[in-house]
């Protein structure tokens, strides 16, 4: 249940420490999604008020093109991975992900070809860079680019799975 997962995330102590400047989102696909409207997400994103307080909109289908493209791309590789959340990138957070033994990959925005959709290309690159025969890692990050904030993306089979991974990261910050 996406609403329950969002409520759990919003209750986490110091959640603001992992919310990027552009905001965060949590999304979940229905089984066998066909397009962006088959992905539920937070309308208007999860935004940071301060280190301890965040605000979030309501849940709605088609609410976030960004997280929807991310999930649809991942599902081309593994239809069981139906949820994603973006959080702030930092070396500290990346190190915590490694300590938690999350499977991790990356993409480099400077390698992005012109005229492609960034998330579709970037997530596909992250999966290719993972080098595990199309298996989807739990974490795909990038270090940003000109005008692009660095980001960590958490993937899981459900929004509860993603929320639990976010909780594990936060308790280690």
UniProtKB/TrEMBL annotation:
Q: Which stretches make up the Thiamine-phosphate synthase ThiN domain?
A: 2-168
SUPFAM superfamilies for the chain: AraD/HMP-PK domain-like
- Extract the InterPro entries matched here: Aldolase_II/adducin_N_sf (IPR036409), ThiN (IPR019293)
- Pfam families for this protein: ThiN
- Keywords in alphabetical order, please: Kinase, Transferase
Q: Name one GO molecular function term.
A: kinase activity
Record keywords: Amino-acid biosynthesis included? no
Q: What is this protein called?
A: Bifunctional hydroxymethylpyrimidine kinase/phosphomethylpyrimidine kinase
State the organism named in the record.
Candidatus Methanolliviera hydrocarbonicum
């Amino acid at each position: 249940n996406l609403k329950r997962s969002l409520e759990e995330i919003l209750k986490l102590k110091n959640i603001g420490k992992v919310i990027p400047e552009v905001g965060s989102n949590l999304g979940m696909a229905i089984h066998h999604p066909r397009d962006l409207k088959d992905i539920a997400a937070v309308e208007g994103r999860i935004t940071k008020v301060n280190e301890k307080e965040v605000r979030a909109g309501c849940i709605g289908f088609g609410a976030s093109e960004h997280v929807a493209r991310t999930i649809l791309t991942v599902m081309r590789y593994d239809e069981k991975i139906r949820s994603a959340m973006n959080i702030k990138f930092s070396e500290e957070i990346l190190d915590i992900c490694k300590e938690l033994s999350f499977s991790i990959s990356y993409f480099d925005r400077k390698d992005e070809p012109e005229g492609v959709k960034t998330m579709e290309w970037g997530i596909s690159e992250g999966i290719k860079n993972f080098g595990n025969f199309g298996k989807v890692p739990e974490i795909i990050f990038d270090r940003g680019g000109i005008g692009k904030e660095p980001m960590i993306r958490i993937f899981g089979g459900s929004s509860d799975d993603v929320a639990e991974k976010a909780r594990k990261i936060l308790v280690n910050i």
